[in-house]
Amino acid sequence: MEAAGKEEISVEDEAVDKNIFKDCSKIAFYRRQKQQLSRRATYQASLDSATTGKDSTKFRIINETTKVPLLVEVYGIEGNIFRLKINEETPLKPRYEVPDVLTSKPSTVRLISCAGDADSLVLADGKGDLKCHITANPFKIDLVSEEEVVMSINSLGQLYFEHLQIPLKQRATKENKEDTSVDASQEDQEDLGLWEEKFGKFVDVKVNGPASIGLDFSLHGFEHLYGIPQHAESHQLKNTSDGDAYRLYNLDVYGYKIHDKMGIYGSVPYLLAHKPGRTLGIFWLNASETLVEINTEPAVKYTLTQMGPVAAKQKVRCRTDVHWMSESGIIDVFLLTGPTPSDVFGQYSYLTVSGSSPRSGRRGI
């Protein structure tokens, strides 16, 4: 027994070859997004030209640095669901959108413009219980339920969208030597993986350059999050501020680390947030490699000069920020507003299970 106590044996170390797995520092699009977001480039929405049709409300947003426009579409979907899509307005070629996951085209609910001008726009569903407050500069969306902001989108300014580019070889034949030298210097930045990314003996060639996307969601009053399987971790999702992000990437591996955020087996970009009185869901419809960062901010402490029931209610209000980053595709996200856990499960089933109802989640007969 004494000898056994001196010899430490780790089954995990024997079963796992750590060299064959990526952590965040080895993922190029993660490094690029972190580097660019530190420069705080913001987007501004052109709400004065917003158009509301039968299925969606559309408007443009423009990056203040690149001046390249993106097209934003906001959909109201039957059963208290909102859908947000962001894509290049005029992409070099169609960007990949995930087929087959949605069992059918969701039934839309016409959104009504309650108020709006060049600086803001308020969209509501037919009942008026749920509203989208869109702010132009900087671009932000607040999801409001019964006059309470339950979710904010891009409130941290982490919207990120890399535009498809003409391949370097084709560009060199069209542009002068000066421009070609600039491209060559970019190509030499292997660390950013702009046109080619290497990991071990594998080489990933990006014909149209980098194409990653990212967006942040702030969940007000929530600190308990679940979902985004599959990981060998605790049921409740943990903060990632002190380590790697949760990785969604399908892997079929013999050995894997436990108590770790690396992706294993299946990849389901579906996250739940719960607090007394409300449950929310975020369904990030993207099939490429995805990283999810989670950070919970403690309750805000107010000064003694703020008195009354409103201040007391705000005093215990915490916030959890969720930052989604994907290697390619478009931003296509469903906001499942509940308000109960059963409602959220029903809303998700309605989108992904054939014959389900958006209210109950049960299969039709």
TrEMBL record:
A Pfam family hit: Gal_mutarotas_2
Alphabetized InterPro entries for the sequence: Gal_mutarotase_sf_dom, Glyco_hydro_31_N_dom
Domain Glycoside hydrolase family 31 N-terminal: 72-292
GO biological process: one example: N-glycan processing
Highest taxon, organism lineage: Eukaryota
Record-linked CDD domains: GH31_N (cd14752)
UniProt GO MF annotations: alpha-1,4-glucosidase activity; carbohydrate binding
Protein name: Neutral alpha-glucosidase C isoform X6
Species the sequence originates in: Ursus maritimus (Polar bear)
Phylogenetic lineage: Eukaryota, Metazoa, Chordata, Craniata, Vertebrata
Gene it is expressed from: GANC
